[in-house]
Design goal:
This protein is of the alpha/beta class and 286 residues long. The protein is built from 13 helices and 6 strands. The chain has a 6-stranded mixed beta sheet with strand order 3-2-1-4-5-6, with helices on both faces. Helix 2 crosses helix 3, helix 7 packs across helix 8 and helix 11 runs antiparallel to helix 13. This is Helix-turn-helix domain-containing protein.
Length: 286
């Protein structure tokens, strides 16, 4: 697969274009489903990019939407072909959050709030190993190893010299105090946090316990933004058996406003580095 083809992003862009064509014709997803003798849920999944789309699906939909320009049809067919190719993460087998990885791989910026653990993009290998083992007690050693490898590979976005991911992470103090993997693992992890926070495209802030209730008490979330203006931002909410992706403008706006409050109430980056150093010293003395 060409390195610049991201199947997840291709599906999203294709789905957005198919939705636009449907709306131009003034059709509902239910009406389209009736004409093609498929379920309405299939049309919805194709449009939101959560399902692979075949070239035959594109051809049939273009027929319903009466697209007469062959160049448009051929372009959409090519996008469908590319959307069925595999990203680097597929080499690791069945990854529960593969859709998110595809989005993260192509994102220009990521804002994340983590109340429990250090974000995956900032984890050391030892810390990631301990997190995966604790979070998935029934997983086999091979499955744990695979998940750790994927997590380490994801960090290439932070180290990408040409197009690094712009990362802003707000962590609750509990993520620092939770002794994942033991004291030495935590010392190394906190040192890693402060090291990465020195990069110009990475910002880390801590929300201390002393702040009390704050806009992040409802739990973890991430906001992804993309380099192409046509690609809408996505709010990602991680679940145990399924994940939620919010793309409606008012949802993204609500979470973005909440994140601004989080950033305003958390310790600033310099205070955060000092805070993390002090927590690391506590672990070193343990």
């Amino acid at each position: 697969m060409a390195s610049n083809v991201n199947p997840t992003v291709r599906r999203r862009r294709l789905g957005q274009e198919l939705r636009r064509l449907r709306e131009v014709k003034g059709l509902t997803a239910e009406e389209v489903a009736e004409r093609l003798l498929v379920s309405q849920s299939k049309i919805s999944r194709l449009e939101n990019g959560r399902r692979s789309i075949s070239q035959r699906d594109v051809r049939d939909l273009c027929g319903v939407y009466e697209v007469e320009d062959n160049r448009i049809v051929e372009s959409l067919m090519q996008m469908a072909k590319e959307s069925r190719q595999q990203g680097w993460w597929h080499a690791f087998g069945d990854i529960p959050y593969s859709v998110y990885i595809g989005l993260e791989t192509d994102a220009a910026s990521l804002r994340v709030y983590e109340p429990q653990v250090v974000p995956g993009l900032l984890q050391t290998q030892a810390y990631a190993q301990a997190v995966c083992e604790g979070a998935s007690p029934e997983a086999t050693p091979a499955e744990i190893e695979k998940r750790v490898q994927v997590r380490m590979r994801r960090q290439d976005r932070i180290n990408d010299v040409r197009h690094p991911l712009r990362l802003w992470a707000v962590l609750d103090e509990s993520a620092l105090r939770r002794a994942v993997g033991g004291a030495q693992t935590m010392v190394e992890q906190l040192e890693r946090l402060n090291e990465v926070s020195q990069l110009p495209h990475v910002t880390v802030q801590v929300m201390p316990f002393s702040m009390g209730a704050h806009p992040g008490v409802n739990g973890q979330y991430a906001i992804l933004e993309f380099p192409e203006a046509s690609d809408s931002s996505v709010v990602y909410l991680e679940g145990v058996t399924s994940d939620l992706y919010l793309e409606k403008a008012h949802d993204v706006q609500s979470y973005s406003v909440m994140y601004e409050h989080l950033r305003a109430e958390a310790l600033n980056p310099d205070q955060t580095r000092e805070f993390i150093e002090n927590v690391a010293k506590d672990y070193a003395r343990a």
